[in-house]
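Translate sequence into structure tokens.
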Amino acid sequence: MSIHARTCTQAPTCKRLLVSSMALGTLLASSLVVAAEAPITIVINQSPWFPGFQSVVEKYVEETGNEVELDVNPFAGSLEKQRSAVRTEKSPFDVLIMNAGFFVEFYKGGFMQPLTDIDADFGLSPDIYTFDDSPYWDADKNLISSDSGKLYSVPVNPNIPLLHYRKDLYEENDLSLPTTWDELYANAEVLNDPPRRYGISQRGQREAFGVTYDVLPYIWSHGGAIFADQKGGDFTVTINSPETYAGMQTYLKLANDVGHPSTAGQTQTNVIQNMSTGRAAHILAVLSPGLFDDPNKSAVVKQVDYAAPPATADFPSSPPLGHWLAGVPRNIPEAEQKAALAFLSWFQTDEAQIAYAKAGSAPVSRAVLESDMADEENFRWMKAMAAAIPMAKLTFVIPEASQVLAVTELRFNQAISGELELKEALNMAASEIHQLMIDAGY
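Result follows.
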């Protein structure tokens, strides 16, 4: 097997990894190895879980001899490439790795090929989580539905936030695992020792889908939301409701009292680094366990443990889905569609999902997360992930998600930085989102 990195022709900020396999032994006499499927290209974002996905792709290539090229980009760059690809005569990509915040625009736009239209016998394994039914789309009703919709994608990564906490510090201070935000605050207050260590580090930076994603667990677990009921079709803007306000007050209380002094400037990378360097006692972040247990990258090896995000007395833990889905665009040849489906079929197998976990990424298989692997120290995060996934909810089910996020990313950041008072920021966001939804025809 070989992996070749070369500069992308589409953008200088990405890289291409060509993964191919050459069988030896009895094939040495032949100068050509014929793969069972056409070569495929997968467009994907660079993220903490990408190395695990890359490792699984390499395993697929080794076992099948099929060629896979990975087009790797920053978050926003990957999204723009996908938007452009589905609107061309022929997409340069055979598999789109779509984020939870934006997949609906590809479904609703008619850009994706229903997977059962490629192969009527194809389906999700019963062990694969459906992540709030997001792989299914009813094109006639324009809604997500596992009952009436067709299968449009296969989940490839859970990517939900979990509470990360320093179990060694918990043991030293005789602290109990927090299940509510008040309990988390109390524990963070005990462990807050600035500037050496902060009680919690939170993401507050304005990004494509950054601060909005990280405040949703606070908002939802207080009964708040951006819209009243997206899945039910009620787009009443509730971002300035008392419940949303209460959730943001909890976020700000942690940030201001026991958090990082520059929360508004903290990115996901900063938050993870604060934990890995021992400067944070807690973070709420997507899973990257391989990093924290790697002595070359972490000062807190084997000291970080995991739990579902906290809740309130009135509302349950509500992690937002930032998961990723793999879909096949309509505008590629049939042979490439079938080759893409061959990879997605293999990806769902226990073998692939176990390899994915061993490579340091969270699998999308219930069978693996609830297996005996969860009792091993290296996979201690599995129980928290298995507990959190059933409570996780979709963030957006509208193609206007990026427009809404342009508003929320700015206004939440301004509230966290103190540039705007919280009520003013939420009222401004509500007015702006209401107008853009009216303009979009809602």
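Note: Residues 1-13, 21-34 have pLDDT under 50 and may be disordered.
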